[in-house]
Write a structure and sequence with these properties.
11 strands; six-stranded antiparallel β-sheet; five-stranded antiparallel β-sheet; about 30% strand
């Protein structure tokens, strides 16, 4: 047995995140105060900022840019002539009960999220299998132990962790489950293209 055509998730643990955490939280709330309406995208409840924070000098763009660039360089992820750049960057602040329904991020190669403030009850990110329809009958024939061994899922959830960045294919359908915490969940989401 072996794997073919895997879906690659990049999980970046950022050691120096906690040095800037408070500044990022302060920045997020300051931006929300400037535009309390925000925008409506896949969010049900919560505050979703405009998506252009990548176009100006700010702490959020700097921190995410540096963490992602460092990960790509230190792990030799891409060919030498490949350049990655942020095409959009936004802030999400979700109160108790807020969530994001199933969606994808068109016109991008990779999408990402960095969790800035969260607890275990803040709501997982859940990915839906690209073969949810076409592979349904095949998946039903396998035993639970085989599916676990081969990482075969209808969907797969990851728990948010402060300071962690998750990169995933932009066309991978995903949603964010409701925040069951009494505390705000703050994250920054972004899209990446390559040239």
């Amino acid at each position: 047995m072996s794997f073919l055509f895997p879906t690659v998730l990049h999980i970046i643990h950022t050691d120096s995140f906690f040095e800037v955490k408070d500044q990022l939280i302060e920045y997020a709330y300051k931006e929300k105060k400037k535009d309390s309406e925000g925008v409506s995208r896949s969010n049900i409840g919560g505050w979703h900022s405009n998506i252009n924070y990548n176009e100006s000098d700010n702490i959020l763009a700097y921190v995410i840019g540096e963490f992602v660039k460092s990960y790509f360089v230190h792990n030799s992820i891409f060919k030498d002539n490949c350049e990655a750049y942020l095409t959009s960057l936004w802030i999400n602040i979700n109160k108790k009960g807020d969530f994001n329904y199933n969606h994808v991020h068109p016109c991008s190669h990779l999408s990402g999220v960095m969790w800035i403030k969260c607890t275990q009850e803040s709501g997982n990110i859940e990915f839906i299998s690209p073969s949810i329809f076409s592979g349904a009958e095949e998946r039903e024939t396998y035993s639970e132990s085989f599916k676990k061994k081969m990482n075969i899922h209808d969907s797969y959830a990851l728990e948010p962790r402060e300071g962690t960045i998750l990169l995933f294919p932009a066309d991978l359908q995903h949603k964010v489950l409701p925040n069951n915490s009494d505390e705000d969940r703050i994250s920054a989401s972004f899209n990446i293209r390559f040239k």
